[in-house]
Records
---
Amino acid sequence: MPPARHSRRGLVIPFLIVGMLLAVWTGWWFWLAGEVETRLETQTESLREAGWQVTHEPVSVSGWPFRTRVAFPAANVVAPSGHGVAAPELVAEANAWNPGRWMMIAPDGLVLTRAGKGQVAVEGDGLRMSVSHLRERFPDLRIELVRPTFTPVAGADPFPLASAERIELYTRPHLTDGEAATDEMDVLFRLSDGRGRPGGPVEGATREGRLSAEVEATIEQASRLRGVDSAGVFANWTEAGGRFTAVQGRLQAGESSARISSEALWAREDGRLEGRLALTAERPGEAIAGLAGSRSGAVDRAGAAGAAAAASVQGDRPIDLVLLFRNGRTWLGPFALAPAPKLF
């Protein structure tokens, strides 16, 4: 009696299943890649119609099977306000199974254009931005610069920082009782071990040391930050009555430190910050005296020297101070220190 022949169907079926899944997944990937290219073209044309300048070499999409990788060679994007960014290459990536979260990197550095102030070249160990929850009213945004350096291009105004260990910016919808607020967004900014440019106010305030900061706030009227007019998003936001509320954080400038808080800060029509900022400071006189000794033309040296002398009376004991941003200037008591910070 001849031996029984075993069916090989059991061996073939798994390979057929894998092949079918691979075919379906490949179809999904190519459909996704096509959708990405189509939406990029649509978004680019929309920006151009709104007054943006957007140029780049031909875009390439790769990353099969598990990623969608979009490369933008020679990218240059300039907003109607004159602010912009250019890079030899920008790369955006997302997992093919989660196209709602994207990471963008500038592997060869980038150049920031500051309206009216010129350009600054930014290099570092990591320059990246991620965005997720794209279908929400306010997506989650994360910007991280790892050991960045800042070099003004010839003819540009000085940049406050020369380098830093890390710079981070995070935004997300503001939550009230676990629910997203209608038109509010939380923002967190961190600066770790920043070094000022030679002769600048940061180098002066830190006594050639390092500046670290962590500041968080809630932005009201956050939807108005999406304007793209020539004045920039903050002008549109200010016109709508936008404010920073629940401001709190901590600063470390060399040997001086301070905890900061404010119920509300806002901007004037010219972009200068307005409002009251409370500080509980330790050894503030050293930072203020260093600011007075800087070579920055923006610093009111006489006012800073007077404020330093007044603050030094307390010695090393913590002292409560109030910074006022008023009429376009920064005041510490009766002493004018410098122009108020400018948002736009």
---
Amino acid sequence: MRFAWPGRHAFALAIQAFTLQRGERLLLLGPSGSGKSTFLSLLAGIVVPDQGTVRVLGQDLGQLSGRARDGFRAEHFGIIFQQFNLLPYASVLDNALLPLAFAPGRRARAAAAGGTPERDALRLMDDLGLGRQARDGARASSLSVGQQQRVAAARAMIGAPDLIVADEPTSSLDKAHQSAFLDLLFADRDRAGATLIMVSHDETLAPRFGRVERLDSFATVSRGATS
């Protein structure tokens, strides 16, 4: 499989083969600029390969329209983006609930878990140490970077998605919050039976994962003009 970003800073990622089994807890290691975020974008159908196939839950993502891929991703993926992608002037609670507006199956699961989706979101907020901010209607823009990262995590985990994809989710957390965050992430993953793939440059996280891979063990990066 191959995908290339065009332009002045052209970048191409070629993947020989990659398989992720249902229910796995995988840590993907690689330095900055190694293609980890591009790999996650391919996995989640945010972009589609120029050559080759990405198949998730039996679905060839390249066979879906852009709108259908968006719906598939909302229903089946919980994504913690490196830049968080929160709505800055929306409340903490509304940010956590956002995926459910596009994913009826996830909304139903959140309602079953908490009585209502809002209660399930508040449970996640409490577990992440943001219960007061959620109940007070705090805006995402009023939070610290570490707090915003935890809101992004709650948004990814709500409604028990099939796959949780996390792009450097602990980079803005101190060691104590990092450990608590991973405890919650793993507990929710185990409760839902979800598959987890997390990318990081931090090799000290490896003992907490059932499988550890380096991106350069199955992918190569090339830079410069692409054709």
---
Amino acid sequence: MENTEKILQVQNLKTSFTTLRGQVVAVDGVTFHVNKGEILGIVGESGCGKSVTSQSIMRLYDEKKLVTYEGQIKFEDRNLLDLEEKEMESIRGNEISMIFQDSLSSLNPVFTVGDQIAETLRVHQGMDKKESLKKAEEMLRLTGIPAPEKRVHNYPFEMSGGMRQRAMIAMALACQPKLLIADEPTTALDVTIQDQIMDLIRDLNRELNTGIMLITHDLGVVAQTCQRVIIMYLGQIVEEGSVTDIFDRPLHPYTMGLIKSIPTMETDRHEKLFMIKGTVPALTEIGEGCRFCERCPKAQEKCFKESPEIHQINETQSVRCFYSDK
């Protein structure tokens, strides 16, 4: 039987940044959940709000000067937006962990990888230095790093990109979090290493029953890895559904465009790949109509004047479009 226990519930999240041009809304009314033990994919082009959503959940922005939040982020029975910073510190890296895009800039260059993993264990689990280093070595072994007893003493620059990413995963999983946010975890890696890292994430999901939010622009990875998918465009969710829904019955023109742009084995090598026309506009250029209307092949007059609400199509699929059935 499918596990439907919700580990995370994001309700009407709105994340606004203070800029020289005033308040800019980067995430606007986002609602979704992550079930215990499932992998949820969040997909969209750069600038669609995927990373802002994940970093809002972790509350990583400067809340005194830079950002304001509205809505709710419920983790188990707590609204994370109501917690004091000290309470959030006890959750970050412990109950909710994150793997960032760039392992080289995310790891501290002046400390060994083992020390950085061990520090997480000392802070959150109360381990002493010897015990935490031993556990760090075990985590490196779990993530498939060869000779972990030696690598635990390496500095980040002494490791390859693939090894650093594994070390980041080891650090994120050290305290056995209930939720793991993986933000483009394979972006800077070659194809072979990408496959190894995704296999590792799938294996750890099965073994530890950790809920995972996988943020990516790679629909191939989503098809192989996730159970449900959210498609984001310009700070809003435009479609949500099971992997089968999204790949077999896409409803939003943006989702259709993303899927059509994927090359297949049948694609003629001399044929140009499909492209969604235009680019993602700046957040300061959002009009009053549908946010995708300028790039949409189905757009009609109504789309330029009114903003569609997201609506449920069936038990598993919802879409934000006036003409999704056309």
---
Amino acid sequence: MSWSRRTVMGGLAAAIPAAAALAGQRRAVPSSNAARFTLGFAPHLGSFASRGDSSVEQIAYAADQGFWAWEDNEYALRPVPEQEAIAKALRDRKMTMGVFVASMPKWSESRPLLGGEDDAERQGFLADIRSAVDVAKRVGARHMTVVTGFMDKKLHPAIQQGRIIDVMRRAGDIVAPHGLVLVMEPLNTRTNHPGVFMQSIAEGYAVARGANSPGVRVLADLYHEQIQSGNLIPTLKLCWDEIGYIQFGDNPGRNEPGSGEINYANVCRFLKERGYRGVIGMEHGNSIKGRAGEEKLIAAYRAIDPTA
């Protein structure tokens, strides 16, 4: 995952001087030169890399193309001045912030085991959630991504599920009073993340129902779901009441819609019919490098955006 949470850190240092220069210019922020998208498609740092190294520069370009949302998985890891610059850029362009990651798994160690025997891992997870509240407020984000950890091979899955439900309820109690929502992301085990506990939207639905908290919902990443289970629109219908956020990425390749097998035009029509007005994270790469790939990315989202 060359663009993934672990690696989309390019431009970290570049954003602060770029933002400072931008702040020093006392002129009106230009308006978009393209029609705003109907749905809240959210690019991320790297989606428009040829337009500048920093998030601030890429946000400006995205707004000019009609995007009204942004996603930044690494936002909590960025220095506070960079976080503030990003927040200002989004406010200036009247853009909505999507998710950032509130608690990052240790992928190389296959941890945490939130359903395991060691309560210290659950306490560490809850500490991450407490720290993320101020980060969310800084940028006006409402949703934060969490991953419910890895399987403990020594314990029955039902016991682990019960413990995960308990810790998610406690996490919901932390964020709900602030109007925030933790969205649990199921991940595929067949291509990217072997060993994770939550592997499908249906499993996320069960944990969210058990947690029974306004601060706990499911992140429906359709790239992962297509690999693991398929049956996307029926699954969205069945689990709709517990879905808090959506991400796109085609399969195979995890690039823009139209580069793989998923019929995203039909998915978008379904979302519009459901009245979904939330953010849709573009959590994927570009199938072609450089400016040509960026133009193809924009065209791909214009093609699936339901305007009628």
